[in-house]
Amino acid sequence: MNNAAALARRAGTRVLVSxxxxxxxxxxxxxxxxxxxxxDGSIREFPVAAFPSLSEAAASYLDMQHERVxxxxxxxxxxxxxxxxxxxxxxxxxxxxxxQRALGVxxxxxxxxxxxQAMAITCLERDDVVAIGGRDWRPFDARMPRTxxxxxxxxxxxxxxxxxxxxxCHTLETEGGHAGFAPVTVADLRLLECLIGRFGRVSCERLxxxxxxVNLYSAVCEIHGRAADVLEPSAxxxxxxxxxxxxxxxxxxxxxAFGSMAGDLVLTHGAWDxxxxxxxxxxxxLPALQASSFRARFESKGRFSxxxxxxPSLAIVHPSSGLLGAAAHxxxxxxxxxxxx
Length: 341
Fold this sequence. Notes:
Elements: H1 3-11, E1 14-20, E2 24-31, E3 44-47, H2 54-65, E4 71-76, E5 80-81, E6 84-86, E7 93-95, H3 96-103, E8 107-112, H4 113-120, E9 129-131, E10 146-153, E11 157-165, E12 168-173, H5 186-199, H6 210-223, H7 233-241, H8 245-269, E13 275-277, H9 281-291, H10 294-299, H11 305-308, E14 313-316, H12 321-334
Parallel strand pairs: 1-4, 4-8, 10-13, 13-14
Antiparallel strand pairs: 1-2, 2-3, 5-6, 6-7, 9-14, 10-11, 11-12
Helix pairs in contact: 2-3, 4-12, 5-6, 6-8, 7-8
């Protein structure tokens, strides 16, 4: 038994878990010795701008909950380099060692937020996902070799993967959201021309994210020769629902680009067992995704179109999948995995 596991055996199975993005930090408590893991009523969300550091946000949460823990797992939207991670879309720089000292906990683990989303796949039930085309999803079974991809828009665009081999889960931590956008149609090229004029190099995140939706709306207005209003993503979706043609086109382009990117992940990751759509925007845009050309663009892969038609694309609707994945990671670190019925 490793030191972390021995610690958890002595201290119990309750762990602080967190999912930290560029806008919000979510905290919860997990009992990694139980199947459900996340404790009812424990989940809280704070704007990251309200705190100077992760440790202060976490300490505030624990004080609010009147809790003490000996272990914590933080899923962070950034690339982890050794002991440290810098959030891609926020100034926080998080050190595992400094956070551990500040909180007075015996063990702290850091992982990429989309590694946590990938780990959440191991815990999802059928009601936690909504299929957008493709064949039926085969729920997770550690006995079967599987390869999945996960992609999700929020403040940025997260990309990760999960490989299951010989009963063990291996997450792929990537920064695939910063890969270059690949246009498919002439209309895509016109949009790309607008975005190149603004940004130079255009990554996938410049289109498929909350700020990306704003970029698309501005580009659509530019193409039509109209001045774009200053709008937040929520205002764009509200205007689209009210019949605004430019906002509707921006959402349609968003869904098409999202479908293209998700299909590309199948090819680059070999994720023939499914692509999971995560992130804060997915539940909000689910009706639009279902009604759009998302799936057509997902499958439109030339000589591999027939292969892509057989791959499920699944929107995660579990309200706390990042925390669930952090809890699943904690279970692997500190405790034997919960039994699966």
